[in-house]
Design brief:
mainly alpha, Tetracycline Repressor, domain 2, 17 helices, globular
């Protein structure tokens, strides 16, 4: 019986594209913050945009969308640096993460801490653009962000914790426009958590063998052979919560129809997903950038409707 060809593993840090144009002394820092992989900050940004758009901020508060994009880029970078500092020993044991700058020695631990501080200071510039309640909510995210890297050691559902963290921007965006946290914003946030669990389970499929060997946990391992069914369930829950959020603003079928493109895209992901193919899992994970855009357009339509 012929041996199966090993699935190619794509490293987390690669010197390519615009990163190759960065001055040589700074390239390793750009890779440490994962600036070579913009999918991370897109996925962090979209819930921020949903909160702003659903609160009706497209016309009067559109600069917030740009400020929050900057915030997503630098704070996602800060999160990656912090995660790599805590996980540097584990990363050395996982094939996909062995090329990360801290593991390879391209960046020292002291330099990584200084880089983290610099990114947080850039995030502070964004923070001061927000109104008081939104600032408070943003600061409250620091505790769950700090705890996230530890979750894969103590729970089978670190993806749920990531959902709490990566969806937090929906609360910030909604409060930045409306000055309060209403049920509409809370529901869009809850739906975002379910969405993150779904797409990060797909992402975690790439590491199942390594995670099992070194004793780390993930929803992909917990679901076993039922990954597609599990992802479908979380995506369905996300759509239901987003629909409920829209319904609180406009209780009519036309508002719910705005989610149809996103629903079709998520259905395509589930139907075509091959969780045993790392390249397919990565491609489906990255396609959630499109999901975020489609939901943002739906939020804009419902948020600006009279």
């Amino acid at each position: 019986m012929p041996r199966a060809e090993p699935t190619q593993v794509t490293p987390d840090s690669q010197l390519r594209g615009l990163i190759a144009l960065v001055p040589a002394p700074m390239r390793s820092f750009a890779l440490l913050a994962r600036f070579d992989r913009p999918i991370g900050w897109w996925l962090l940004y979209w819930p921020c945009a949903w909160g702003v758009l659903l609160a009706g901020g497209l016309r009067a508060h559109w600069p917030l969308l740009l400020w929050m994009l900057l915030g997503a880029i630098v704070m996602r970078g800060a999160g990656c640096v912090y995660n790599d500092i805590l996980d540097r020993d584990l990363d050395a044991r996982v094939e996909r993460t062995r090329s990360r700058p801290l593991v390879s020695g391209a960046v020292t631990l002291r330099a990584a801490w200084l880089w983290l501080l610099g990114l947080c200071l850039m995030g502070l510039v964004v923070l001061v653009q927000l109104r008081g309640l939104a600032q408070l909510i943003a600061l409250m995210s620091l505790a769950p962000v700090a705890a996230y890297p530890l979750m894969k050691r103590i729970t089978w559902w670190p993806q749920a914790w990531l959902g709490i963290v990566f969806s937090w921007g929906a609360l910030v965006g909604g409060a930045a426009v409306s000055g309060r946290l209403g049920v509409t914003t809370l529901l869009i946030y809850a739906g975002a958590i379910a969405w993150v669990i779904g797409y990060d389970t797909i992402y975690a499929c790439q590491d199942r063998e390594d995670d099992a060997l070194i004793g780390l946990r993930s929803s992909a391992l917990r679901m076993g052979q039922h990954v597609r069914l599990g992802v479908a369930g979380f995506y369905t829950l996300a759509l239901a919560l987003w629909a409920a959020s829209f319904w609180t603003l406009h209780p009519q079928g036309l508002a719910l129809a705005a989610l149809a493109p996103a629903a079709c895209h998520l259905a395509w992901q589930v139907v075509t997903l091959n969780p045993n193919d790392n390249s397919d899992a990565l491609a489906k994970f990255r396609s959630n950038r499109t999901t975020g855009l489609l939901v943002a357009l739906a939020c804009a339509a419902v948020g600006t409707a009279g």
